[in-house]
From TrEMBL:
Signal peptide segment: none
Pfam family, one: Pyridoxal_deC
Tagged with keyword Lyase: yes
Record organism: Mizuhopecten yessoensis
Protein name (Swiss-Prot/TrEMBL): Aromatic-L-amino-acid decarboxylase
Keywords: Catecholamine biosynthesis, Decarboxylase, Lyase, Pyridoxal phosphate
SUPFAM superfamilies cross-referenced by the UniProt entry: PLP-dependent transferases (SSF53383)
PANTHER family xrefs: AROMATIC-L-AMINO-ACID DECARBOXYLASE (PTHR11999:SF167), GROUP II PYRIDOXAL-5-PHOSPHATE DECARBOXYLASE (PTHR11999)
Record GO cellular component, one term: cytoplasm
Subunit structure: Homodimer.
N6-(pyridoxal phosphate)lysine found at: 304
Record family assignment: Belongs to the group II decarboxylase family.
One GO biological process term: catecholamine biosynthetic process
Length: 479
């Protein structure tokens, strides 16, 4: 492809993407293909000779689209949203064009410097304590990780290293990392995301899931009791991953209670607010983040709910040396003469290479402004409340938990199995897509506001589908 063809085909692709997103309502949100469908549609081996762009382009609709789940569809209500917006897509085109790898300041200074500034912007938008910001002049600062899972893993491994060093220093000079590691215990709530359990597995430490209260929150007393019990058994509690906005039901751990326990006990508190974190840019939701001052690290995904396309997960730490010194290897070819003046982000993450992801955050924040992003969050929360009202008005149904953000958990009154049948029937119908969840043995359905253009008509449509499918199901069950 030469430059003239790139100009032409690039513009065609922009038109294709714009048409795709503007007409996404016309596509079934969840595909009907069966496993192995794609192998039937393309050859077994790569082509020997170049193919024409027309042929390649035509295969998007023929091969790819039949197997695409349309996450930005207003009829897609599963999981949590994954953000989408034109400014972020444009930024990714630029990032791909520049194609730099910003592992150190010297490897592409703009890549590091924009990230430093934009994460301070974002931290201020969230009203994070200054200790998390570069501009405070202390040891704090932010970094973009690919995912919340990586943020949890990086912080857990850093906390683990800190504890190993501490125990080795305080001991008799004999270093037995294996013996200390076998005693390390991390905690999370029973509602924490599976990536937290996985971080424990990868980090080779015990991850204990603690019970939550009736609102799904991990409470300070539960944490305190677990720590005391574990210490009495000779174990070493070292890390808590608290969740603000759980995947199961969007519950909020009580950080104001857990934080002081962690501070007193010398435990690293990490906060995972992967989904709900975006809402903390609105003053009315910011109180849910109170207690963040006790956290050593805080993370949320702008790629979930802040109009920044995947991948962009923002992590802040109060003391970046605990992360950057935790796994420091320093080969000659990565050194540069300005070391120490700006962060070398390779020390803040697991991979070496990193894309220019701050561009999309920068474009989005500027193109919408704080006010535009706040409006966007408020619109989705309002839509969730609109859906909640429809559920409440139908006495066959009940709400599970509390609607705080853009997620509504609901169920048919009665046993789990009828709700399992309802979920299957709704998804088999195909007009909308939802996923189930279960807390303490209660099975329920989750409706998340996902599509960036979801409006009130879409919510009424989702309810119409659920209502129709329910009537049919209950009729069949009665026969
Ligand atoms: N934590 C929470 C609370 C989540 O809801 C999710 C995903 O939905 C994750 C972590 C994992 O996010 P990621 O895919 O960015 O690792």
């Amino acid at each position: 492809m030469d430059v003239e063809e790139f100009r032409k085909r690039g513009k065609e692709m922009v038109d294709y993407v714009a048409d795709y997103l503007e007409n996404i309502r016309e596509r079934r949100p969840f595909p009907t293909v069966t496993p192995g469908y794609l192998r039937e549609l393309i050859p077994d081996s790569a082509p020997e000779d170049p193919e024409s762009w027309d042929d390649i382009f035509a295969d998007i609709e023929r091969v790819i689209m039949p197997g695409v789940t349309h996450w930005d569809s207003p009829q897609f209500h599963s999981f949590f949203p994954t953000a989408n917006s034109y400014p972020a897509i444009i930024a990714d085109i630029l990032s791909d064009g520049i194609g730099n790898i910003g592992f150190t300041w010297a490897s592409s200074p703009a890549c590091t410097e924009l990230e430093v500034v934009v994460l301070d912007w974002l931290g201020k938008m969230l009203d994070l304590p200054p200790a998390f910001l570069f501009s405070s002049g202390g040891k704090g600062g932010g970094v973009i990780q690919g995912t919340a899972s990586e943020a949890t893993l990086v912080t857990l491994l850093s906390a683990r290293t800190q504890f190993l060093h501490k125990h080795n220093k305080s001991g008799d000079g004999h270093h037995d990392d294996g013996a200390v590691m076998s005693k390390l215990v991390a905690y999370c709530s029973a509602q924490a995301h599976s990536s937290v359990e996985r971080a424990g597995l990868i980090g080779a430490v015990t991850m204990k899931k603690l019970e939550t209260d009736e609102k799904g929150a991990l409470r300070g007393t539960t944490l305190q009791q677990a720590i005391e019990k574990d210490r009495a058994a000779g174990l070493i509690p070292f890390y808590l991953c608290a969740t603000l906005g759980t995947t199961l039901s969007c519950a909020f751990d009580n950080v104001l209670e857990c934080g002081p326990v962690c501070e007193k006990e010398g435990i690293w508190m990490h906060i995972d607010a992967a989904y709900a974190g975006s809402a903390f840019i609105c003053p009315e939701f910011r109180p849910l983040l109170n207690g963040v001052k006790y956290a050593m690290s805080f993370n949320f995904n702008p790629h979930k709910w802040m109009k920044v396309n995947f991948d962009c997960s923002a992590l802040w730490v109060q003391d970046s040396s605990l992360i950057s010194d935790a796994f420091n290897v320093d080969p000659l070819y990565l050194k540069h003469e300005n070391q120490g003046k700006m962060p070398d982000y390779r020390h803040w993450q697991i991979p070496l290479g990193r894309r220019f992801r701050s561009l999309k955050l920068w474009f989005v924040i500027r193109a919408y402004g704080l006010k535009g992003l706040q409006e966007y969050i408020r619109k989705d929360v309002q839509l969730a409340h609109d859906f909640e009202k429809l559920v409440v008005a139908d006495d066959r149904f009940e709400i599970f938990g509390e609607v705080v953000m853009g997620l509504v958990c609901f169920r048919l009154k009665g046993p789990n199995d009828v709700n399992e049948k309802l979920l299957k029937a709704v998804n088999d119908d195909g007009r909308i897509n939802i996923v189930p969840s279960s807390v303490k043995g209660t099975y329920f359905l989750r409706l998340a506001i996902c599509g960036s253009k979801t409006n009130n008509n879409d919510i009424n449509f989702a309810w119409k589908v659920i209502s129709e499918v329910t009537s049919k199901l209950l009729q069949e069950n009665a026969c």
